[in-house]
Amino acid sequence: MKFEHYGRGIIKGMSVTIKHLKRHPTVNQYPEQKLNTSRRIRGNELIWDKKNCTGCVTCAKTCPQGAITIVTSANLVNNKYEVEKYEVDTGYCIQCGLCVEACPFKALFMGYAYERAKYRRPELVQQKEDMGLKEGKLASGYFYPDIAATLPRQTLLIEKVVEIREEPKPVQEEKKVAPPEAVKK
Fold it and tell me: What is the pLDDT of residues 123-166, one digit of tens each?
């Protein structure tokens, strides 16, 4: 065994290490500094549009896990179905997006949120009241390019995230004044 064989390997390894030392850090301070996810993210929630839904149950039929439960009743006055119960068990849902693609009336969207961890399994079931498009909830651009165009551009870890930080102000010590009853005579 010759030293030249080991020496080349060490030099190659050190060159890779030195290259990485010169790059900016690829981490972020997560809870305070969040990156924008992909516009087409399949977040772990579904958003349901009550106005467009006809109760055809196509989304529930295409779900491979059977995570969607829909109960409808016939409305003879309007000659259409009324959705009484719409539930999605996100614990079973694999976020495949087949339900969104199968909906012929554009009543179902993947959500843009990804921070929906729960401590108890029953809390993972989304009811129809929770699935509405409310303020603060964003629909993902998955399967809908017109929605994707309105969402923010994805930020990557390899891009340099510029953060404006304020210099900490020096802390001035305040004089502590004891209450009058605590002062001894």
Answer: 999 999 999 888 888 899 999 999 999 998 888 766 655 554 44
Sign of CA dihedral 6, 7, 8, 12: positive
Q: How far apart are CA 140 and CA 148, in angstroms?
A: 7
Burial 90-113 (b: 16+ CB within 10 A, else e): beebebebebbeebeeebbbbbbb
CA distance 106 to 144: 9
Our measurement of the distance from residue 14's CA atom to the centroid of its chain's CA atoms, rounded to an integer in Å, reads 38
pTM here is: 0.70
Residue type present at position 136 = G
pLDDT at residue 183 above 60? no
Other CB atoms within a 10 A radius of the CB of residue 42 amount to 20
User: Is 103 within 8 Å of 60 (Cβ atoms)?
Assistant: no
- Three-state secondary structure call for residue 83: strand
CA distance 136 to 118: 19
Q: In sequence order, what are the residues at sequence separation of 6 or more whose Cβ sits closer than 8 angstroms to the Cβ of residue 89?
A: 67, 69, 124, 125, 126
Fold category of 46-148 in CATH: Alpha-Beta Plaits (3.30.70)
Location of structure tokens 């390894």: 13
- 41 within 8 A of 148, measured Cβ to Cβ: no
